């Protein structure tokens, strides 16, 4: 994983909150020269974490998720803490479904001391980590391996998860944001559709796989660092209230 400097991480946090920051404003905020800020921004752009504009910087303009490498470089401490908290609640001898995402891969790194686990995942990074342990049985589906983030994708992935039953299913998401629920006519509010926080993904096929994971699990867990509450995405996974456990929050963990 590529570690960002504290200032670079803070720049990412600011542009995630504000969507755009000027070079002069960042220079004043961190009390450094504009040349120093430009060097930081050049490195962030090279990692795909930012987009340079004349006189400023923003998040990359994309409807898809960023690469696994670029996402791995952000919010490392928080992801480590979330993973530690989740792993502490996983008992030996259970069957786990693990979805995609860098926090899920971090969870896989911390499962080495667990005994007699069966793990089913389409997260290639997580599968590679777990395959090094004889006492962890790891299952992955067949399909195309995405070069962007190392996930196994395809129309058969949801069916693959459907062949198993898990004690715990853990998914990540691209965003947590308000979306219109579709209540029954009796539940419809006078103001129209009810609004509820949903775990969201950028792509429908990602959301569909996450839905298959939680549908086949007795315990449904969501892991989401605090930046997820500052983003938007368009493909619904499930309402936050649907999950038995949520590790992480809008206020941090």
TrEMBL record:
Coiled coil: none
PROSITE patterns listed in its UniProt record: HTH_DEOR_1 (PS00894), HTH_DEOR_2 (PS51000)
UniProt keyword Kinase, yes or no: no
Any one Pfam family match given in the protein's UniProt record, by short name: HTH_DeoR
Highest taxon in the source lineage: Bacteria
Assigned keywords, A-Z: DNA-binding, Repressor, Transcription, Transcription regulation
PANTHER family linked: GLYCEROL-3-PHOSPHATE REGULON REPRESSOR, HTH-TYPE TRANSCRIPTIONAL REGULATOR SRLR-RELATED
Protein name in UniProt: Glycerol-3-phosphate regulon repressor DeoR family
Organism: Vibrio variabilis
């Amino acid at each position: 994983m590529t570690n960002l400097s504290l200032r670079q991480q803070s720049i990412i946090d600011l542009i995630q909150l504000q969507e755009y920051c000027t070079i002069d404003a960042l220079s004043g905020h961190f009390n450094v020269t504009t040349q120093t800020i430009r060097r930081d921004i050049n490195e962030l752009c090279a990692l795909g974490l930012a987009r340079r504009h004349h006189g400023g910087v923003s998040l990359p303009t994309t409807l898809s998720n960023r690469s696994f490498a670029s996402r791995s470089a952000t919010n490392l401490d928080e992801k480590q803490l979330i993973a530690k908290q989740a792993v502490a609640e996983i008992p030996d001898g259970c069957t786990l479904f693990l979805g995609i995402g860098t926090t899920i891969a971090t969870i896989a790194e911390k499962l080495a001391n667990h005994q007699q686990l069966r793990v089913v995942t389409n997260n290639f990074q997580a599968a590679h980590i777990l395959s090094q342990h004889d006492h962890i049985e790891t299952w992955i589906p067949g399909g195309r391996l995405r070069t962007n983030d190392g996930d196994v994708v395809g129309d058969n992935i949801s069916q693959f998860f459907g062949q198993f039953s898990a004690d715990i299913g853990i998914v990540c998401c691209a965003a947590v944001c308000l979306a219109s629920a579709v209540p029954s006519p009796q539940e419809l509010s006078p103001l129209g559709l009810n609004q509820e926080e949903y775990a969201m993904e950028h792509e429908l096929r990602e959301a569909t796989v996450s839905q298959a994971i939680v549908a086949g699990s007795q315990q449904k867990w969501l892991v989401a660092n605090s930046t997820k509450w500052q983003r938007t995405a368009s493909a619904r996974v499930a309402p936050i209230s649907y999950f038995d456990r949520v590790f992480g929050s809008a206020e941090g963990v």
